[in-house]
Amino acid sequence: MHFTSSLVTLAVLCGLVAAVPTAPAPRDCSAEVARYNQERREARGLSKRTFYTQMLNLTCTLAPETILDDYVSNPPVRTSITEGQPGVAFTVDIGVLDTTTCKPLSGVMVELWGPNAVGQYGSTFLRGATLTASNGIAEFKTIYPGYTSDAANHLNVLVHPTSAESGGVAHVGQLFFTDPWTDIIGKYTNYNKNTNSRKKNAQDPNFAAANKNGFNSIIDVESIGDDWADDEGIIGYITVGVNPKKLVA
């Protein structure tokens, strides 16, 4: 009788454990994202030149939210945002991935802004917004940013869930660089006039906040040609996971 009672108790306990909800594991989108990233590079006919051996962010992981820093609302809708600011030409390729479907998110408004070569933000320059294309990519032509005194070198990004800048906010993030890239570019014309104190990634708590839960917020940078610093510039890729059905602001 005691043995039968124990079996009943065990069965009840097993049922309770099975009923406890578990957190969903990050969805593995490695095949889709690898193909997505390869197509982005092949579209430009580029070979990979980078500090990394493979593209980052291969799972459907939400990009962590970070502080909204140096923000000016309603930037002009445009892809070229330099306004004549001198610096190393930088094409930023931001792929927006819907984490609920593992598919590129098309037709949503993405904002990008950053400081100039000497680490100063402006009210209009180096700011802009554009819609993601059918492949989920928002492309901006800007310059590699100069570092500020209060943060590791980064660009700022904001993703709306719709095609309108007034349509709420699905993501606010900061996109960083490897320290070696900032070291190299910091030696070039205009950048070498930056008088701000340098803060590296490991010293910035916002860098830690932006790189968690399996997401990597470092832009994968590659040079276009041998004269990238003075002529053709560089290209940066990053894939940002967002949930368009969940507003953060």
TrEMBL record:
PANTHER family linked to this entry: INTRADIOL RING-CLEAVAGE DIOXYGENASES DOMAIN-CONTAINING PROTEIN-RELATED, PTHR34315
SUPFAM superfamilies: Aromatic compound dioxygenase
Record carries keyword Electron transport: no
Signal sequence, renumbered to the chain: 1-19
Protein name as it appears in the record: Extracellular dioxygenase
Annotated keywords: Dioxygenase, Oxidoreductase, Signal
One GO MF term attached to the UniProt entry: iron ion binding
